[in-house]
Amino acid sequence: MKTHNIAIIKGDGIGHPVVDAAWQVLQAAAKQSGFALAGTEMPWSCAHYKETGVMMPADGIETLRKYDAILLGAVGWPAEVPDAVSLHGLLLPIRKAFDQYANVRPHRLLPGVEGPLRRGGFDILCIRENTEGEYAGAGGRVHQGTAQEVAVETGIFTRMGVERILRFAFAQARARRSKLASVTKSNAQKHSMVFWDEITRQLAAEHPDVEVTSYHVDAMAARMVTAPESLDVVVASNLFGDILTDLGAAIQGGLGFAASANLNPDREAPSMFEPVHGSAPDIAHLGIANPIAAIWSGAMMLEHLGEKAAADRVMAALGDTTGRGIGTVPGKDKTDAITAAVLSALS
């Protein structure tokens, strides 16, 4: 029997129950489809930081490297550990070390889910550059604590980085409806974003079968609200992609439905799969965290591992569950009840 070895990082807060739920569903789907998932839990989290002074050990990256994929719950507990510490101590190092340069987030309404818009029928795949750009961490502060204090944050855009995420986006567009929207703010950012637009035009000439439209990020935000059905694949820089995908989560019913994949498309290192929501400290003890985003992320992991039939089964079970009104309203159903319903639909 084929076995996929998965590193599990539950992280903080609701990361624990949603990963537990997703793992139950993934194990059931694997059993049905004739393969196995072997999970190894890593206790890396803000609690780990408080105990050890680090979010993950010095050999954490090398420890993860041997796994086929990483399933992550949520990281962060701002009342105890600053978000800048938890983010730069765990999530961003993993993305960069494993060159997970493509962050992929699907935005569509599951059956029975009502979003805040008056319209449905949209199916958007947002692709975010995941390793450089505005989140490169280049910059610094001088004269700290004085009236002359200066903070500099420098976005890093390389031709290799921009071109490869755009090529990935073109490939996704070809596999879907052959429409690509490239998002910048080139009227205001005359270096990095003009550079991005230039490379977009160069690659568009290589892909005449794909309809390419360039948008400023503010116009794209408006379009996602007013005409989301007009969009297919949307590609953006690290910062703009981060913001737009939270808007995408909102129009698909909320963060409880927002799944994501951090992909190394070249498969030279493990990819990581995680729900977009945070650790939600305010509800972590209530048992009402929606596991659907984590389960959906798990389905994306199965597809990446080559188990598309099992991934399709999981997505069908999610659709059956929400179609019966279970898990569609935040806080209405307990985590365990939603999980049981998905497992029942799967069987």
From TrEMBL:
A single MF term (Gene Ontology): tartrate dehydrogenase activity
Domain Isopropylmalate dehydrogenase-like: 5-342
Annotated EC: 1.1.1.83, 1.1.1.93, 4.1.1.73
Keywords from the UniProt entry: Manganese, Metal-binding, NAD, Oxidoreductase, Plasmid
Keyword Metal-binding: yes
InterPro entries: ICDH/IPMDH, IsoCit/isopropylmalate_DH_CS, IsoPropMal-DH-like_dom, TTC_DH
Role this protein plays: Has multiple catalytic activities. Apart from catalyzing the oxidation of (+)-tartrate to oxaloglycolate, also converts meso-tartrate to D-glycerate and catalyzes the oxidative decarboxylation of D-malate to pyruvate.
Annotated family: Belongs to the isocitrate and isopropylmalate dehydrogenases family.
PANTHER family per record: D-MALATE DEHYDROGENASE [DECARBOXYLATING]
Protein name listed in UniProt: D-malate dehydrogenase [decarboxylating]
